[in-house]
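R.M. (postdoc): so does anyone remember the format we settled on? I'll just put the structure tokens first.
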């Protein structure tokens, strides 16, 4: 069993906006229908026991209320990104993933559909506006590949900005004297 990250759970009630207050009970109902294990969900000073009895037991601590929106609108990918950002934590992440896998049909039909499907549709519509016309291609390339010289300066030759392999002569090691580019 793994442990929760070092930050202790917040024991104060977590402020929630209207949308989160509307989404949270619906998502909790979906988690409560899980079979094969139980999730103990801690949020602020509240504790909920969700799911059916089974061999998998996991404690989830909600650290930020945006986790609910990210799960609702992003599905399992939103939940994973929310975890990486520290919005929630689990004492046994492997058991939680196994519990989701054991309930894959429900995850696919309930959590990956509905609001998550709508959010994917909006994202797809936004991508359609980034067509690969001549100006659009330049913009897309700049957004994805123009990462600046700082990264390349860490592994390219300082003088020629080239990447090459080492050439070791038998009589003298290559690191003792620079080799001309023509020898490569």
């Amino acid at each position: 069993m793994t442990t929760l990250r070092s930050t202790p759970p917040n024991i104060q009630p977590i402020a929630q906006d209207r949308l989160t207050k509307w989404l949270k009970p619906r998502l909790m109902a979906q988690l409560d229908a899980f079979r094969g294990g139980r999730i103990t969900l801690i949020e602020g000073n509240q504790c909920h026991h969700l799911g059916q009895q089974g061999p998998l037991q996991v404690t989830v601590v909600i650290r930020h209320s945006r986790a609910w929106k990210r799960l609702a609108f992003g599905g399992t990918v939103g939940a994973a990104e929310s975890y990486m950002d520290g919005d929630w934590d689990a004492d046994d992440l492997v058991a939680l993933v196994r519990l989701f896998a054991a309930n894959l049909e429900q995850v696919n039909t309930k959590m990956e559909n509905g609001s998550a499907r709508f959010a994917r549709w909006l994202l797809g519509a936004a991508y359609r506006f980034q067509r690969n016309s001549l100006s659009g291609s330049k913009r897309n390339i700049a957004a994805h590949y123009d990462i600046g010289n700082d990264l390349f300066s860490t592994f390219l030759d300082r003088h020629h900005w080239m990447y090459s392999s080492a050439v070791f002569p038998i009589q003298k090691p290559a690191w003792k004297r620079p080799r001309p580019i023509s020898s490569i």
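R.M.: ...and that's the designed sequence above, right after the tokens. Also worth knowing: The longest helix spans residues 66-84. Residues 147-183 form one domain.
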